[in-house]
Amino acid sequence: MNRFAFRRPRSGVTTVEFAFTIPVLFLFVFAAFELGRANMMMHTAEAAAYEGARTGIIPGAQADECITAARQILGTCGIGQAGVEVTPKNLDTISENVAVEVSVSFKDNTILAPLFMGDSVIERTCSMTRER
To answer: Are strands 82-87 and 97-105 parallel, antiparallel or unpaired?
Structure first.
């Protein structure tokens, strides 16, 4: 006797299971993509602040050169909307340190709509002692 002979047909079960699981799969894929982009933006902002500060510690450097160096690093990852601030604003003054602060708005620099990170702002600062 065949035990499968009296089974009722189960048509559409795969479609229903797919309909329940695909939104969860897409949620994980988009979350991984967005959090990966946020991680990349954090590290790029940190590298930009570091390069801007390195440029600023050289004798005779100007604040505009620091900003240009930081924006060049930010541009390598497609970050166009970012704030770069150099302290002190006039590097001709006698000061011990140069600090560069980079702030990146996640909402303005994401490829997709920011579902998980929202309006968060990534801020990184690097301070270095000037050469004399």
So the answer is: antiparallel
| Cis? peptide before 59, omega within 30° of 0 | no
Q: Which amino acid would we find at residue 107?
A: K
H-state helical runs in the chain: 13-56, 63-76
> 6 exposed, middle or buried (CB, 10 Å; 0-12, 13-18, 19+)?
exposed
The backbone torsions φ and ψ at residue 85, rounded to the nearest 5 degrees and listed phi first, read -125, 135
pLDDT tens by residue, 11-63: 788 889 999 999 999 999 998 998 898 899 999 999 999 999 999 998 888 89
Domains and CATH numbers, the chain: 13-129 (3.30.1300)
Q: Are the CB atoms for 93 and 19 separated by under 8 Å? A: no
The Cα–Cα gap between 81 and 63 comes to 19
**pTM (predicted TM-score):** 0.80
